[in-house]
Amino acid sequence: MSSNTLRASMNGASVRHAVRLVVGACLAGATLTCRYDPVPAAIIDQLGEESGTPSATHRAGQPCLACHSTYGGAEPQMAIGGTVFYQNGQGQILPAEGVLVRVTDSENTERKACTNATGNFWVEEDNWDDVAFPLRVRAGDRRMRGIMGRDGSCATCHRLPDDDALDSITGAGRSSAGVVVVAESDLGDACASSPTGTGGAGGGTTTTGVGGAGGAGGMGGAGGAGGSATTATTVGAGGMGGAGGAGGGA
Amino acid sequence: MSGKVAFVGAAFALVLVTGAGGGAGCQSDLDARQTLTCPDEKLFRTAVSPFIEKRCGTLDCHGSATQPLRLYGELGLRHPAEANVSGGVETTSIERQDNFASVCGLEPEKMADAVGNLGASADQLLFISKPRDAMHHKGGKVIEEGSDADRCLTGWVGALTPEDAAEVNARCKAAAEALE
Fold it and tell me: Pick from B65, B75, B84: which is nearest to A146 by CB?
């Protein structure tokens, strides 16, 4: 073998080795860091910048699970999440606080949650990791006529008013049912009198297991037994200020 | 070096051949028409569509303009030619008509075959195999084989007689009522 042939051969081997290294690094990098999926990525991009500190009251009316999901990576990860509004006497759409939301899955398992100061509510994924779609939902005395097919974000279908809205008040249009609006009489007391416990002073969201081991997702509310202290602490730090998890499903 | 040139040359040739083939194929197909048989449209409008609008046509599933099988309906996506909102007036005639076109046009040849053999090959259709999750379905398994919902869909494909239609009506109605 001549020296030129040997050099060429070595160069070829080096190039092949380099290619393998680059490809390997790309694959490893993709596995470790790249979760790019254009559909949820576009949804997240459209949500805009955070204003203030992320908390339990932030981004009312936006699709919670875009970020609070395995893909989005924001904590807490949610099985269901949404925002409830009411219309006051002047026709304004305002956040509905203290509304009891009941979600029932196709196995007839139910979770309850109470809306907080901005109308937000959610059920953590840890508290419903086996949720079986489709779901039926009742917010206050209002029952959803349809079903939730497969997306745990209420706002995927119940969008805030946008350019496509035919009803500029609720946002209803050809591809949106408009925001979830309950009666003013649904506000406030339903959660306080509910066996699921109450959000209390923090205006917190209470998420409970039904008839099972203590509710995993008591959030932000004052007192109560059986909630997850870890969750409550996390939410409290995010601005809800609640102490301790609210009542579980025992 | 010569290997790389040969590879590039082969790739270029492949592009040329593909382009030429595609061009020739499109040219000859421009005016092509084929008449294929669909299942009963009236039965679809009265029985099948009301069920699939409820079960499959929610805004987070097939009631979306970005879904391959697009479905319109009262509680889902509304037709662009009309000014109705989701959750508003009942499903309109044009929406049912387009739902029928979506379903029958999904796999027109296979659908025609299934109609021809009175539904014997209905389980080969995406319309049936996807909701059964026999073929991967992002929404998972949404109907059980042999259930009212399943017999609503498969029965419609193979329906021939008035008795068949009555059976399909009953199954679809029961399946839709289960979602109330």
Answer: B75
